[in-house]
Amino acid sequence: MTKRRRVLMKGNEAIAEAAIRASCDAYFGYPITPQAELFEWMARRMPEEGRVFVQAESELGAINMALGAAATGARVLVSSSGPGISLMGEAMSYLAGSELPVVVVDVMRGGPGLGSIGPSQSDYLLATKGHGHGDYRVPVLAPSSIAEAMELVATAFELAERYRTPVFILADGILGQAMEPVEQRYRDPPRSEAPWAVGGAAGRPPRVVRSLHLEPEALEAHNERLQAKYREIAGGEVRWAGERLDDADLAIVAYGTAARVARTAVARARAEGLRPGLFRPITLWPFPERELAEVASRVRGVLVVELSAGQMLEDVRLAVEGRLPVAFHGRTGGMVPTPDGVIDALRRLEARVRPAWTLPLVEAAALDRRPDPDTFSLFGDDAWRPLETTPRGER
Amino acid sequence: MERSVVFAGFGGQGLLFAGQVLAHAAVIDELEVLWIPSYGPEMRGGTASCTVIVGDEPIGSPVVDRVDVAVAMNPPSVAKFGRQVAPGGLLIANSSLVEEAYGRDDVEELQVPCTALAREAGDDRLVSLIALGALIARRPIVRPAAVRAAIRKVVAARQPDALRADLAAFAVGLRAGREPVRGRAAAPAPDAAR
């Protein structure tokens, strides 16, 4: 075994240190569990580095300070959890409209409302679909380990500056609170020249940072430019990871902590004779829909696992387009699905999608459904001829 | 192979610390590890617990259905985690505070008077390191030397004055684990132990 230089780091602290090593200039925040250690780490380390740390009077203050700092070309981090993130919705819309790069870390906790401080993935829809008003999208990165979270912090700053957009890092209470060994590999992305940055305009035309465009034609043109940018992001920035999908006949789709539970479930289920694989989106927006559709074309059923009542489930269903059953297993309120719970859900799905040729004759006939044409038939092509062979239009 | 340990007891008994020592020891032994605390309001005065999962491969699920070892330092923790121990697993109970055996015949029950031994070693807060010693004696998830190195690493950074007592407590626990004391021994009154 080669000696590796690894240190044990807490997720919240690793994210904070990764931002510092990525030359984050300013952090604005307000304390909230379960991201408190991120805030505390910044409170201690940012002044050490001679950079800006401000404990704002509220999350509203923090995100608007971030907007101001980003307008000057600074590299800015903000972090919070559900209740605070909700408060930031207005400013996220302004950041998107003003095209300012800010990285926002949401260490998700159970909701709605104050909910609980337990881990959750119930801000998926907020981050990928809504949050603030207006036609805008925000890249959303979902780490599944502490090492990956550190890497994605640098990626988030890159995306934010390349596309002049706020970027979400969607973590959860477990990822924030857990400790794992990590190699201290930090990345400091090259700086953008920040052609939006306001400041002294001597020798150049003045710049204006705003989201207000009162002329409908001007606002529509602005929106079309934003949409073109979002198409470019959707086309070029999709990230995902697959595990044991090559020979899988069932696919679990899960991100973040849920993907880790699913990984353990996949290993155990395979030992018990099932053949699941894991499809893990890393960008939640843009969602890896084409990639998932391709995987879905090779399996018989899809199981979505989340720490929510079923939010990413909607994107999975859109990607699968009704071509095969999509089942769901989730826990809410700070509860976490267990590997055995996932396996139970896999078994239920497997029973639903089991090809007809594996069933006894009578049962298969009673099912009255077309066997998978790619399925090998033990008894020749005619033995399991589907009961319905005539295209509906010809009846 | 993954092995999971839950450390549970009163806040102030040093359970999260003992879990972190085990996690650091796993890193020293070049293993994969995940440490996760229960970070709820129970940390503020009531029971505290953390789970440590050690393995040869990167750790998958951060939550476990069943634990291989439960270190339960007070009665509520025995009640809560005793049933979560996997068959063939190990339950270490603090016999200074827990009067009766939990009574499962499919797990190994080890009763160590951790509070009494900690008091002998000089500090009630050493309870969890004594339990960790007993744990490593029965289930060598990591090497004892790695635990000692981890204690030096963690304690030297925070409370160098406590290092000698912490190492001694771990040694006491190792001995207690190798020659388990069945039943209660020299237990102080539970109230005093809190």
Structural description of this entry:
- The complex is a heterodimer of chains A (395) and B (194).
- Chain A is α/β, with parallel strands linked by helices.
- Chain A is built from 14 helices and 14 strands.
- Chain A folds into 3 domains: 203 residues, 3-Layer(aba) Sandwich (Rossmann fold), CATH 3.40.50; 114 residues, Rossmann fold (3-Layer(aba) Sandwich), CATH 3.40.50; 35 residues, no CATH class.
- In chain A, the strands form 3 sheets. A 7-stranded mixed beta sheet of chain A has the order 3-2-4-5-7-6-12, with helices on both faces. Chain A has a 5-stranded mixed beta sheet with strand order 9-11-10-13-14, sandwiched between helices.
- In chain A, helix 1 packs parallel to helix 2, helix 3 packs parallel to helix 5 and helix 10 packs across helix 13.
- Chain A starts with 5 loop residues before the first strand and ends in a 28-residue tail after the last helix.
- The C terminus of chain A is likely disordered.
- Chain B has 194 residues and is of the alpha/beta class.
- A 6-stranded mixed beta sheet of chain B has the order 2-3-1-4-5-6, with helices on both faces.
- Chain B is globular and about 40 Å long.
- At the A-B interface, strand 1, helix 8, strand 8 and helix 10 of A face helix 1 and strand 2 of B.
